[in-house]
Amino acid sequence: MHYYNYSIFDFLKSKELKEIPFNIKNTPTIDQLGLIERAAKFRTRSIKKEAKIQGLKLALNMIDLTTLEGKDTVGKVRQMCYKAMNPHEGMNLPTVAAVCVYPNMVAVAKETLRDSGVKIASVATAFPSGMSNLKVKLEDTKMAIDAGADEIDMVISRGKFHQGEYNYVYDEIASIKEACGKARLKVILETGELGTADQVRKASDIAIYAGADFIKTSTGKISPAATMPVTLLMLEAIRDYYLKTGKMIGMKPAGGISDSKTALHYLVMLQETLGKEWMSNQWFRFGASRLANDIILQLLKQEKGIYQSGDYISKD
After folding, report:
1. Which are the contacts of 56, defined by CB distance < 8 A and separation ≥ 6?
2. Beta sheet of 119-124, edge-to-edge order
């Protein structure tokens, strides 16, 4: 199903550059050292065994299990979907939140997942670089939506952002949001390319006001990807918007989060910054491919009292 009543060409002709509905010059400046120190404190929280088990299962249920490689095959995507629905045989585990694939693999994921409740996310808009025009980006988004994607993960035009063309970035996000129809939109800032904390905050505010349902740190294709200080900064942007408007926005750190201990630290930070309302996969996701396996191993350790070999865990 698609949401266009007319051609992409007509859609583009009808668009006029919009003014950002807030003064971009008034976005707050960030104390980067203070940000780093605040983020570090979340790593010091003590988590007892029962809370740890609950936290690990919650983190598993928040994962967007991801494969975004040129060598992806139909078989690999199907295997990942099976794992998304049943992370490990013989354990009572939740499903992951979603699988994330390229647009041409959405139909495969949809056929495999069926009515499992696992969402299908698709990257779009010339992922990962974003170096294309709006017409191509809209076609990319439309392809994923028509194939059955529930969520679109788009990348912003970082070159335009660095040139100070903030209205262009805003308008592009708003156009993709309109093209998404009922699908939720995650806007990837690629924070490792933005340079400073002030730039990340500015990009976060632009994405939120342009209609993002989630803001997301990274594509996972460059380093640094997700970090706790950057994620905290973005959570604070979400908090400020919520306090101003009453509207909740989701958050997705992605790239480099591969161990359970780090995932638990992120959940502590989420709880203490935004509160319990955000503690579900409706509003928080981990973009990860390896995190699920480490969570499974940690839960097996809690259940059996010994560490299991990773050789017994599916790598897909």
Report:
1. 260, 263, 264, 295, 298, 299, 302
2. 250-252, 214-216, 184-188, 151-155, 119-124, 98-101, 63-66, 286-288
Given 177, 186, 252, 294, the catalytic residue = 252
* 87, 296 Cβ separation under 8 angstroms: yes
Q: Considering 153, 205, 213, 294, which one is annotated as catalytic?
A: 153
Predicted local distance difference test score (pLDDT) of residue 5 = 40
Question: Angle at CA 256, nearest 5°, toward 173 and 137?
Answer: 25
Residue type, position 98, single letter: A
Active site residue 153: yes
Has 252 been annotated as catalytic?
yes
The whole-number pLDDT of residue 4 equals: 40
Tell me which residues of the chain have a pLDDT lower than 50: 1-9, 11-13
Are 140 and 170 within 8 A, CB to CB?
no
**CB–CB of 263/33 below 8 Å?**
no
Give the CA diameter of the chain: 63
pLDDT at 312: 56
Contacts of 254 (CB under 8 A, 6+ apart): 64, 66, 188, 216, 217, 218, 219, 220, 225, 226, 285, 286, 287, 288
216 is annotated as an active-site residue: yes
Q: How many CA atoms lie within 13 A of 273 on its CB side?
A: 26
User: What domains are there in the chain, each with its CATH number?
Assistant: 26-312 (3.20.20.70)
Active site residue: 83, 142, 202, 216, which one? 216
pLDDT at 133: 95
